[in-house]
Amino acid sequence: MTRVLLVEDDPQLVRALVINLQARHYGVDAAPDGATALRLAAARRPDVVLLDLGLPDMDGVDIIKALRGWSRVPILVLSARQASGEKVAALDAGADDYVTKPFSIDELLARLRAAVRRTEDAPHAPGPLLVETADFSIDLIAKKAIRDGQDVRLTPTEWHLLEILVTHPGRLITQKHLLQEVWGVSQRSKTNYLRVYMAQLRRKLETDPSHPRYLITEPGMGYRFEG
Amino acid sequence: MTRVLLVEDDPQLVRALVINLQARHYGVDAAPDGATALRLAAARRPDVVLLDLGLPDMDGVDIIKALRGWSRVPILVLSARQASGEKVAALDAGADDYVTKPFSIDELLARLRAAVRRTEDAPHAPGPLLVETADFSIDLIAKKAIRDGQDVRLTPTEWHLLEILVTHPGRLITQKHLLQEVWGVSQRSKTNYLRVYMAQLRRKLETDPSHPRYLITEPGMGYRFEG
DNA sequence: AGGTCGCGTCAGGGTCCCGTCAAAACCAGG
DNA sequence: CCTGGTTTTGACGGGACCCTGACGCGACCT
Known about the structure:
homodimer; about 230 residues; alpha/beta; Rossmann fold; Arc Repressor Mutant, subunit A; four-stranded antiparallel beta sheet; 12 strands; about 20% strand; DNA-binding
């Protein structure tokens, strides 16, 4: 059974959608706000997320980013905003689709089927929520790094960088990609950023920062996390 | 470079989109009708398809079905029809997204980025992503070479050269082509580059570098990778 | 048999890249 | 306005990488 996480604060709309979804044999969890949504997403591991952007407690784009930090679950955004700027922001933050209210229920269901179909075709194992090594462990949901039983304090930039690396274990990530993702620039002239922050991360996580075991440099190309 | 196949019969819209796409460094092929579209899709293997449903020669849904018969390339549908029935039919036939005209160009580009991003994360075999031999194996997406269970460290130039050879197994690659691709020069006077770097690669990958089994020299012509 | 051409090998030097440190600029909260 | 933490710079030393030229060898041609 396909499990849907419905994130929506309007009880009336929730009721209507739940009825429709259950009639099509989807399993539905509902969350009225962002905090609940993130908690449920981690606990229930839905196959697809329906996300209303107009939530009381959090900005919608932040929810998308938070989810994308550890999961690649398809995200369909529902919103009353028709402005293209909103759409672009949500899609670039990692959403898969954007439907403006009011929408046809048939269309929504078709878009939902399309999103689910894609993940069936390419059965990517759902990303781990906890990355563990012999020396430290990274909790992607709680956004915490733990080393020798102690919490390691990471700044937002450090975390963003680390997140990209550990969610693609073994993969080489090019400097261009990292700069684009974390700083929004793709100029090769600012590789100092990378050098400084990689040094920070190694100092905080590696047992021997000058001979890193996990955060590996590939000269001239980029960096890689070895698990 | 990301290659887009644009299927659209309105020359004015084609022109506008081509300009916008090329400005963002996409490679664009254009097809004015369904038959051309299918031929180009097979010949050029685009990374994403922009498909107008209102073509002169074929029904749009049939084009989607024909494509889906052999390819999972993301398909973004453009259409003037707002009726949800059309959308449902297109999406259920295998389309990934459906944008109604008139659309904001920014939104279209954002949806296109979203579609491309998905395939990057889960690369569904545009070729073999893992090249294996009896002595070593090459992981093309992680950019890693492994020999006897050990990681082999390759420099950017070495990797670039190796990548070209192993992605065309058995094929002879001319010196001119290799020089052009890796060093941007096609002068035959600099074949020393090739000699030096081929020697490096053999030393790192072959069990008997002076009698290579995989990285074969074709005297006077070029090199070939034997799988 | 001698010559030529193309290839493999090696080592040195110049250049670019990376790690490191520290100071300046920035920002949010009190 | 001040303060602590964070991000952005700049400078520097060491090492990795790329280019280059020289040499030897074998194949092929004459």
